[in-house]
């Protein structure tokens, strides 16, 4: 199985597109806004979000962590994954929040508040409240690369 190193290539063309989607997202993300996005946007947002979380861990940046989690959540809102698959990805920002000295529930609630009511904010709040989240439990492990800390699937 090929190992994907998440923290590499943070300035990919797809990242510019994902940042553009986030920049035009309203303060309260509605179903109407989500309906304007497509599968390509969802994929780019998810990948971008994961990379931003890894960079947040490297830099110690709660702002970048929040930005990455928002990208991941918006991508999930567009292309609704299986809850279990989504939680595998959400383990990264959960662990990152702990490593950065933040309460995961607060980080996840902040992101959840950006969305209209529904399954996604409920899932985000529920997952953020969990106390059993580790990288290993969700199939990840940290490594050191020439660029610094990174996360790979194990």
Structure description:
The chain has 7 helices and 2 strands; from the N terminus they run H-H-H-H-H-H-H-E-E. It is mainly alpha-helical. The protein starts with 12 loop residues before the first helix and ends with a strand. Helix 4 (62-78) runs antiparallel to helix 5 (83-99) and helix 5 (83-99) packs across helix 6 (104-112). It has a two-stranded antiparallel sheet with strand order 1-2.
Summed up, what is this model?
The chain has 154 residues and is mostly helical. The chain has helices at 13-24, 31-35, 39-59, 62-78, 83-99, 104-112, 119-128, and strands spanning 140-145, 148-153.
How many distinct domains?
Answer: 1
Helix content: 55-70%
Query: Mean pLDDT across all residues, rounded?
Result: 91
Strands, count: 2
Distance between the termini: 10 Å
What summary fits the major beta sheet?
2 strands, antiparallel
Strand order of the largest sheet: 1-2
**Class from helix and strand fractions:** mainly alpha
So what's the overall shape?
globular
Q: Number of helical runs? A: 7
Q: Tell me the radius of gyration.
A: 14 Å
Strand content: 5-15%
| String of helices and strands | HHHHHHHEE
Poorly predicted regions are 1-5
How are the secondary structure elements laid out?
Elements: H1 13-24, H2 31-35, H3 39-59, H4 62-78, H5 83-99, H6 104-112, H7 119-128, E1 140-145, E2 148-153
Antiparallel strand pairs: 1-2
Helix pairs in contact: 1-3, 3-4, 3-5, 4-5, 4-6, 5-6, 5-7, 6-7
